[in-house]
Amino acid sequence: MKKKFNLKFIFTAAIALVAIISFAQSDTAGIQMADTASEQVKITEEISAFDFLMKGGIFLIPIGILLFYTIVVIVERVLFIRRMTQLNTNMLNQIKGDLSNGNIQGALNSISSDQTSYANVVREGVLTVGRPISQIESNMEKVANIEIGKMEKNIGHLGLIAGIAPTLGFIGTISGVIKIFYMISITENVSIGNISGGLYEKMISSGSGLIVGIIAFTGYHLLNGMIDNFALAIQKINLEFVNLIHRPSNGDKA
Q: Which terminal CB of the chain, N or C, has fewer other CB atoms within 10 Å?
């Protein structure tokens, strides 16, 4: 009886021990999973978009200023050029009758409400009617160049920013790399964590500079494309105006 009791006791104790070990392991695994999840949440919370960007260093300040100025110039120029290049397709038809009758003041009154670049060029042509055709064309071309100059205001700055912003970012990265290797030379700690961690932070400035440069470069060429379209259109307007005053409907010169 004693032997059977001992065997039964040992068997029961073994089962209890296995149960305790299994419970401990599951509890440990749960704690590890909870710790892992909390660490992931912590990492996610720590590396937010703003905090990640701020790791780029002090060179992000001038890059941010350049980005703000770039956006201001692009928006302001787009609105200005669109406003000045709104073509009234009936403008020449409105002044055709007045020019045919020699009514210069009437032609000027017809386009007085139009404050676009096209109207400014045509207005100069109307004011010089009666002079040689070559002089009329020359004056209209000069006014067109003045209008183009107004449209190009500050656009050259975008081309400059397109070159400066990536350079600033690159300088920021080089400065950071120099600091990393300087710290390595002092601490003699060449762990991959220290190198990669510091390096990715410093490369943020390069990425930011490239993004600003791309925005400025794109805006520069888009705005110049809008101005080129105006330059082509105003040439057509000039030709139509010269034909209008040189070959009026009644067969006589205005």
A: N
Non-local (6+) Cβ contacts of 24 within 8 A are none
Tokens encoding 251: 């067969």
Residue 202 and residue 57 in contact, taking contact as beta carbons nearer than 8 Å:
yes
Closest listed residue to residue 85, CA positions, set 187, 234, 212: 234
Residues 6+ apart with CB under 8 A from 133: 242, 246
pTM: 0.70
Could you give the C-alpha distances from 142 to 25, 102, 111, 125, in angstroms and in order?
88, 24, 19, 11
Question: CA distances (Å), 209 to each of 139, 166, 177, 206, 235, in order?
Answer: 44, 4, 17, 5, 39
CA–CA dist 246, 148 (Å, integer): 26
Q: In this structure, what are the phi and psi dihedrals at residue 249, rounded to the nearest 5 degrees?
A: -65, -30
Provide the 10 A C-beta neighbour count for residue 216.
27
